Amino acid sequence: MAGNIFEGVKGDNAIFKDERFLYPEFVPEKLPHRDAEIDSLVFAIKPVTEGKKPQNSLVIGKSGTGKTVAVKYVLKELEEFSDRAKSLYLNCFEFNTRHGILTEISNFLGEATPRRGIATDEAYTKLLIALKRASFTPIIILDEVDQLTNANEASKLFYDLLRIVEHEKQRLGLVFISNDFSFSAKLDSRVKSSLAHQTILFEPYSPQQLKDILRERAQYAFHSKALGKESINVAAAHAAKLGGDARIAIDCLLRAGRLAERENSKHLLPEHLKRVFVEVDSSGLKKYFSGLSDHEKTILSLIPSNSETSTGDLFKQYGKAVEKPLTERSFRSMLSKLESLNLISAPFTDRGERGRTRKISLLVPKEAVLRQLDLGEMNLKP
Ligand SMILES: Nc1ncnc2c1ncn2[C@@H]1O[C@H](COP(=O)(O)OP(=O)(O)O)[C@@H](O)[C@H]1O
Ligand SMILES: [Mg+2]
Prior knowledge:
The chain is of the alpha/beta class. The chain has helices spanning 35-45, 67-81, 98-108, 120-133, 151-167, 183-186, 189-195, 207-221, 229-241, 246-262, 270-289, 294-302, 311-321, 328-340, 366-380, and strands spanning 57-61, 85-91, 137-143, 173-178, 198-202, 309-310, 344-345, 348-349, 357-362.
């Protein structure tokens, strides 16, 4: 009788002690180099534990700077510390309408509200009733809040929340998280003064900081001798080059570890890392591609693969490539968005003849951009 197909595949192995410590959703006990940011969040939310009103926060920073994990960490600690608060995490990739968010919040508060078949105003009313009954202060996290693609819906939602806090005087904590540095400027001043009392900026990690983060995670994920110091350096350097993105650094270790294990290697070596770079580098693109406009996709596809271009040249090319190009101002803000997602690097130079210009290069593999564009076109066909 033939053996079971799973038998040949070894379960316990030389590389990982427990790879789950490297999963993107894992919230570690320690977050190196985020003390100040965490303190600001704690300070904002602390009043809730004394039965007072929390301060609402806006958390801003480029992709992979630890925004999501820091907020989740703080709320996990809060719930352990006090039963006066409970948090609801909503990613606006998934919940991207006013209706969806309102019903999700009232469900969380224990007021069973169907997602479909009820009007949005009714969902709001139900939420308010539930809030008045709640025995705790809800802290609502709206992550990737710039993904509320419909601006009108988003501003209506913000007014609902404003009304709850200002007019109904209900206790509700809010944390908005965004990659978009202009998000705050897009909010109306009344909304901003009530819903975003403070802005907490998350800076990209330096190579040294990335090393510290990797070391911290690696000691739980890997067997002690499996991972050489050199491998941490290589992964950190790669992620630093791609915009100081901790997600890339950690994902490199996870995928390279799996590769080393599959090949029955005793160590995770720099060569394993180098073989997973292309795959890792494309993953950010996969995540964010569907949230890009056609103009942004076109711009991305016009950037050369292994060299840099200037704002002026790219703008000219863009003008030729699309039928109705947007203004230069919009073009610049699209560049900023691509930069905040770590899809391009675009530092300013002072060489420009007309104002400041940027030196633009791709941070994701060109083939991956073209592949995503092809896939998109295939989807358009019936
Ligand atoms: N200071 C840190 N210490 C440990 N892990 C971190 C730290 N900052 C980020 N990470 C990890 O890096 C990855 C990306 O962080 P994340 O919070 O998702 O970034 P963002 O939300 O800013 O895009 C996650 O796996 C997260 O756990
Ligand atoms: Mg995030």
